[in-house]
Amino acid sequence: MDLTQIEGIGPVRAESLRAMGIFSLRDLLFMLPARYDDYTRLFPCNTRQEGNILVSGTVTSPPKLSVFHGIKKVTATISDNFGKMPVCWYNKPWMVNQIHEGDHLRLFGRLSIKNNRRTLQNPRIVSDDEHLCPVYRSIKGFPSKSFRKLIRSALAMTDECCIETLPADFRVRYQLCELNYAISQAHFPDDMNALRIARRRLSFEQILLYLIYVSITKSGKHLAVPFIFHNELMDEYWNSLAFSPTNAQRRVLSDIASDLKKDTAMSRLLQGDVGSGKTAVAFGAIFLTVQSGFQAAMMAPTEILARQHYENARKVLEPLGIRCRLLTGSTKTKERKEILKELSNNTCQVVFGTHALISKDVSYSRLGLAITDEQHRFGVNQRSLLQEKGTDNQRSPHVLVMSATPIPRSLALILYGDLDISIIDELPAGRIPVKTRLVPEHKRQDMYLFVREQVSKGKQAYIVCPLVDESDSDNDLHSAKSLFENLKNNELKDLRIGLTWGAQRPDEKEKTLEDFSAGKYDVLVSTTVIEVGVNNPNATIMIIENAERYGLSQLHQLRGRVGRGDLESWCFLLSDASDKLKVLCSTNDGFIISQKDLELRGPGDLIGTRQSGEPGAAFLYGDIRLLDEVTRCVQDLHRDPSLKKALEIIEKSASAYFAESGHSVALN
Questions:
Q1: Which of 41, 326, 327, 556 keeps 20 to 30 A from 596, CA to CA?
Q2: For residues 186 and 174, what is the distance between their CA atoms, to the nearest angstrom?
Q3: Half-sphere exposure (CA, 13 Å, Cβ side) for 598?
Q4: Whole-model pTM above 0.90?
Q5: DSSP code of residue 659
């Protein structure tokens, strides 16, 4: 069903949903909550338990509206038999008329303690019949309450679009509930047990379909044209660089070189932590490819990252006689035609780009090496499409996939079962570890003073927010635009501050990032758009607002934007203390962090990215034990004759979902 046929969705809202990869009723139903607010545990009004809490009490005085520095604030006090609780709402002036003295309220919000004074901030009024409230990712134009209402309407139509995909006897064997029950309870669970059952079903199925689909698409090793070159070429490449490679970089390039000489196509995953030098190794593989008479293509998930690779390649590869070009969705028509002509007649040896590299009209003369960077943001389908652009129908190009998200080896072996794995486990000499600190709200001003001090020394800072606009959510989260305005007019008013976000016009976003890298801004306020593809060695401070809202792996990626030179760098996490964030403060090892993230969150951060409507959020509810269980289930399906019919049905479901519907198999 088209989105605009659903009540409550007009053209503008439909466009916002499409921007999130939601194109149909089914996509909408699989937009599962990111988390749940627990309205079952009641705290007394005298509690000093910081964080999200539920209190119940009577409004003891009329609410008051005040304005300070343009920020409207409504304050009130509620009390119960144990004491009083000060309450405030920011930028919600209508609350002054919504509550009255004597009202009995259940309020859910974040309790903050500053200078020994407690305040329940931006609480939501909760009805008596609410128990577990779903909290969804922010979508422009959809306040949380409106989106929950939309999901309730959509759930009434579940039977029309969510046909059961697993045989009944199979579900009984593996203790899985029905699909429609799982979808309903995943959104609005009756209780924690119902939620657990629903999560298990959806997680189990999606991991199952993924593993079955990968097993279907594996067809053994593809034939390839073996490259002919002397190993001295690797030394020639390393000697051309302005730095000495690490032993790990030399070892991995040697592994790749051995693969390139074989008559079966290389399929290798190159893993490495932030700043380990994966790109230099990839450029070495490109050098060997071109010296063997073939072309190379390197695909990145964003134009910013593709352009950065291209600019680096011009400095590294063009002096070696290799012609490089950049092809993205924004490439002008005339230039695009030139690039396509050069690719087809082999006058361009290497092209960098985005999904534009796998467009139908792009053909290569002798594509010998296909590289995908940030592999977790692509899927198996995109990788295959680039590979199919190869030399001819009988011979495939060699494939190198790169991941900057460190993945525990046990998980990588499951997810990338068709790939050999190389890990760069050594950082370049002289790299100074980033110092990471938790910053409570009452230390915010001290942090800004530190930023001023560093800027006075010529350094720069990033400030990352979870939202673009305050209107994106009714939660107590910082938005990039409001924080930008506040800092520009208050704490950092005499500094040069830039602002960027994901949906900003590409040319404006690119100029902002270029200006920041060129030193025209002291501070850059942004969303997570700067997570990849921004390289500014002069930026030494990373501030992450509402750090508790991110997974450890993403926080580690954001931290990796600083400490890229030989300067002392800092990462400040604005949040209350938690075991999760203490892990980040204790280590800079991405593999340790990803293992902890896997234990805390399940493989969601590592597997489930929403792409083309894929219900990746289901992976958030799986843990490593479930991953192991599904892996054993797949083995049973292939070995147990009694499961033959179930295997046939599940294979059809997997093919229909990932192939026929155009969904990608996304690995985060």
A1: 41
A2: 19
A3: 23
A4: no
A5: I
